[in-house]
Amino acid sequence: MSIGPEELDYVRDLVFRRSAIVLEPAKQYLVESRLARLVLDEGCDTLDELVHRLQSEPPGDLHARVVEAMTTNETSFFRDLHPFEALREHVIPALVAQREATRSLFVWCAAASTGQEAYTIAMILREHFPALAAWSVRIVATDLSTEVLARARAGIYRQFEINRGLPEERLRAHFEPHGIDWRIRPELRAMVEFRQANLIDDWGAMPTPDLVFLRNVLIYFDVPTKRALLGRVHDLLARDGVLFLGGSETTSGLDDRFERIAQGKAVYYRRRDGC
Ligand SMILES: C[S@@+](CC[C@H](N)C(=O)[O-])C[C@H]1O[C@@H](n2cnc3c(N)ncnc32)[C@H](O)[C@@H]1O
Predict the structure, then answer these.
(1) Domain spans of the chain?
(2) Which among 44, 71, 149, 196 could disulfide-bond with 50, CB atoms 3.0 to 4.6 Å apart, if both were Cys?
(3) Atom 7 (ligand 1) nearest CA
(4) 82-271 CATH fold
(5) Closest ligand 1 atom to 113 CA
(6) Could you give the 3-state DSSP secondary structure of residue 223?
(7) Is residue 34 among the annotated active site residues?
């Protein structure tokens, strides 16, 4: 299903204004393949017809669905492994010592997609830090897309999603069978709150996070958006808090108020002293 040049420009502009995701003109094939299902669902004959409908209607649900369809939701449990090893071995133990007085911990998993990252964090806390059961621990996971958030809340995963990153032992500990799929056990599901938030909008009432996971989303944004977003995360993060980015993402050259910490094969960021 092909798209005309003006229609492509309309979609690129819509997606950029509503999500900051940059779709280069060369991504035409991506727009065509990602929107094909929506064309059928909406009873349109062509992609251009769908775009003309978007242009003629006031902004609403259809526009939001187009933007959601253009998000890339690739994720997995224990993705890249090393950040989660650093979390378990260094970052959480340090925070537990630092928060002994308040006995509270707030984790923000931004751009959480279908939930694997947030549930990975919950698994680590449950397996290795049982004392935290007596603390106030909140894991808030947000994403732009209502579709992925619904999947994340349900906590139901297919066998191939389990096979990507979860050994048998963890599967038994944290999941129960759900037909041919697997469902996160209620006690782990209860540890994570999922809510919709667009990273380029107001984030609503948000406590000061001790840990921010902002992984594999900056790659979709242009430099001014990355700068603005990292600046806001910097100002929100606890002074001794930690920021994790994706493996190909960095604060370097974008916000030098962050200090890069390399620990084994993992990299994470802290606010520099006094910033
Ligand atoms: C590739 S996934 C990353 C998932 C997870 N953080 C990981 O690293 O495995 C990127 C996610 O960012 C979300 N996203 C893209 N633009 C966004 C925006 N402006 N606000 C909030 N979420 C956004 C997408 O919906 C998608 O689920």
Answers:
(1) 5-69, 82-271
(2) 44
(3) 75
(4) Rossmann fold (3.40.50)
(5) 27
(6) helix
(7) yes
Average pLDDT estimate for 39-56: 96
Percentage of the residues of the chain whose pLDDT score is greater than 90:
97
88 is catalytic: no
CB contact at 8 A, 164 and 127: no
- Model confidence at 205, in pLDDT bands (50, 70, 90)? confident
Say how many Å lie between the CA of residue 4 and the centre of ligand 1.
27
Which residues make Cβ contacts (< 8 Å) with residue 167, sequence separation at least 6?
none
Of the residues 23, 71, 201, which should be mutated to test ligand 1's pocket, given the most ligand atoms within 8 Å of the CB? Answer: 71
pTM of the model: 0.97
* Predicted confidence (pLDDT) per residue in 119-149, tens digit: 999 999 999 999 999 999 999 999 999 999 9
Per-residue HEC secondary structure of 97-149 comes to HHCCCCCEEEEEEECCCCCHHHHHHHHHHHHHCHHHHHCEEEEEEEECCHHHH
Q: Which residues contact 42 (CB under 8 A, 6 or more apart)?
A: 50, 53, 62
Which of 11, 46, 53, 50 is closest to 28 using CA atoms? 11
Coil, strand or helix: which one is 266? strand
Q: Which CATH number fits domain 5-69: 1.10.3470, 1.10.155, 1.20.50, 1.10.287?
A: 1.10.155
Structure tokens that stand for 12 in this block: 């690129």
**Euclidean distance between CA atoms 112 and 215, whole angstroms:** 8
Q: Is 152 exposed, middle or buried (0-12, 13-18, 19+ CB in 10 A)?
A: buried
Nearest residue to 251 via CA among 240, 267, 266, 274: 267
CA 122–ligand 1 middle distance (angstroms): 19
